[in-house]
Amino acid sequence: MRALFLEGKRAEILDVPGPEPQPEMAIVRVELAGICNTDLELVKGYMGFRGILGHEFVGVVEDGPEPWRGVRVVGEINFACGRCEYCARGLGRHCPQRRVMGIQNADGSFAEWVSVPLQNLHAIPDTLSNEAAVFVEPLAAAFEILEQVDVAPGLDCVVLGDGKLGLLVAQVLQVAGARVLAVGRHPEKLAILSGRGLETRLASDWSPEPTSLVVEATGSAEGFELAVQATRPRGTLVLKSTVAGHAEVDLAPLVIHEIQVVGSRCGPFAPALEALARNHVDVQPLIFDRVGLKQADQGLSLATQPGALKVLIEP
Amino acid sequence: MRALFLEGKRAEILDVPGPEPQPEMAIVRVELAGICNTDLELVKGYMGFRGILGHEFVGVVEDGPEPWRGVRVVGEINFACGRCEYCARGLGRHCPQRRVMGIQNADGSFAEWVSVPLQNLHAIPDTLSNEAAVFVEPLAAAFEILEQVDVAPGLDCVVLGDGKLGLLVAQVLQVAGARVLAVGRHPEKLAILSGRGLETRLASDWSPEPTSLVVEATGSAEGFELAVQATRPRGTLVLKSTVAGHAEVDLAPLVIHEIQVVGSRCGPFAPALEALARNHVDVQPLIFDRVGLKQADQGLSLATQPGALKVLIEP
């Protein structure tokens, strides 16, 4: 089958063997996949991954037990062992033995077919388009914040960063009832949020004010410093973006103001699916471009363009 | 009166005017004071403080309303405004208008007398010696962790750092029922803890293992990195020591493992007083030396010696 294969720092379209049927796994024919910033980091060498890229997808089960066959699905990306202490505690996303689709020891979704554990599958309602469903995985990452932090209605929040994740996080916090200010560098991206009634501010017009909940989604080391400055004493700072390598940071304000920093990664699919099905979150304006699988490598280049948002891949 | 006065980076014994009676303030005759690492940082220029140093003390109220006169007391160091939103929420220790004894806009306790808000005073039981009571303030900082983090009995904890604060934190976590491993560089300091039944390890014999709760009390940037490595996925890392200036840190593991970092500063006096009164915590072995107020500047030098623990000042 055709797939976007990463080896070293080179991602190229190759003809590779398709996935083989395995117990407890489904083979899903990919209908649509999405490029995430993590994919771009992987190409730079993050995680030292070798294999088929891609972890955002929607598709149809072609091989697997009867009830799943023909079902349109999305799939969670952490393939947990199901037997360890973390799995027993419901923390399969932190299973030390996990493989991660398109990131760690498991082939990904930038291909014609992808192999996914049955326990990771979520059927999607007919009313949900592929263009919406392909956002379930990143939207789940935004919903993870609500699993970790108590977001009371009316809570004052600042979301730093108007990239794909920042735009999803801001909407999720709004759905939770928070008073959200989204800060970013791209008027056209912030407009997506202001169109939904969120308050937005260009970073150049903003200076940090003490805020109860700050979400850092800029993907830069300076973003962390600004986020600390914007967090009120005893407030919470959620770290969503991984800044590759070491950053120069001043930790003293965390102690002086007793700030709580919460690292946040993958999240629960169920609330993300529900929010999309109920139209509580709008993802369509986040689609920047789409390419065929044959041009998936060009899709990666498109996704690195300034101002780019979600680039979709159609096998 | 005699006092250890800091101006610029020079701390010297001076004859200065004593505190004047003021409404809502008590004048306390200092009987014993303790040198904290923060004092040493202040002398290096931290906070740009100018005034009388010192924030750990025990003394007797000489001037104030009738019920307080003659009472032996310790005092909380954050002088809150009592009128702002933080004060209303019981977070006076984070009052933006606060003065802080011996640290920010308020004279400290390395003097014959010190002025303290009545609301900050805590009477101490007759059974408690001055040598124990002088540890209430730093011990309260250790108890702050229990205010911020749920420490269930049996929780596995690592305390990094066998300085004064680390030794107090390890004991407090033990009192809370946690399974504590204390890691440090000084066999003689760790022996204080092993004598009380705590597990200890020399840093050279230790490598980070995933732990539910890690307390960073080393006061070094490398301490933070080690602490992150020692924190299990979804675990908690309490930052107790302020590392002056910027440190090179890798924030990615916080996100990948969804670690929660909790900055922790001053704490509640009541549980600290109680723990000392009930002999739940042993502070006597932490006394390294004592000097007269006339030699308070030499006390600072003593406190910087390798292996030094608490240096007390007797006016």
Write up this protein:
The structure is a homodimer of 315-residue chains. Chain A has two domains: 2-135 and 283-314, Quinone Oxidoreductase, Chain A, domain 1 (Alpha-Beta Complex); 141-263, NAD(P)-binding Rossmann-like Domain (Rossmann fold, 3-Layer(aba) Sandwich), CATH 3.40.50. The mean pLDDT of chain A is 95. Chain A is globular and about 55 Å long. With 315 residues, chain A is of the alpha/beta class. In chain A, the strands form four sheets. In chain A, strands 3, 5, 6, 10, 11, 19 and 20 form a seven-stranded mixed β-sheet that branches. The first copy, chain A, has a six-stranded parallel β-sheet with strand order 14-13-12-15-16-18, sandwiched between helices. In chain A, a hairpin with an 8-residue loop joins strand 5 and strand 6 (72-75). Chain A contains ten helices and 20 strands. The longest helix of chain A has 13 residues, at 136-148. At the A-B interface, strand 16, strand 17, helix 8 and strand 18 of A face strand 16, strand 17, helix 8 and strand 18 of B. Strand 18 (260-263) of chain A pairs antiparallel with strand 18 (260-263) of chain B, so a sheet runs across the interface.
What is the rounded distance between the termini of chain A? 10 Å
**Count of individual beta strands of chain A:** 20
Shape of chain A: globular
Briefly note the CATH topology name of the largest domain in chain A.
Quinone Oxidoreductase, Chain A, domain 1
Count the helices of chain A. How many?
10
Quaternary structure type: homodimer
The largest contact between protein chains, plus residue counts on each side, is: A-B, 37 and 37 residues
**CATH architecture verdict of the largest domain in chain A:** Alpha-Beta Complex
Order of helices and strands of chain A: EEEHEEEEHEEEEHHEHEHEEHEEHEHEHE
Q: What count of structural domains of chain A?
A: 2
Summarize the biggest pleated sheet of chain A: 7 strands, mixed
- The CATH C-level name of the largest domain in chain A is Alpha Beta
In which range does the helix fraction of chain A lie?
25-40%
What percentage of the residues of chain A does DSSP assign to strands (E)?
25-35%
Summing up helix and strand content along with how strands pair, one would put the structural category of chain A as alpha/beta
In the predicted model, the low-confidence regions of chain A spanning at least 5 consecutive residues are none
Give the averaged pLDDT of chain A, no decimals.
95
The CATH superfamily name of the largest domain in chain A is Medium-chain alcohol dehydrogenases, catalytic domain
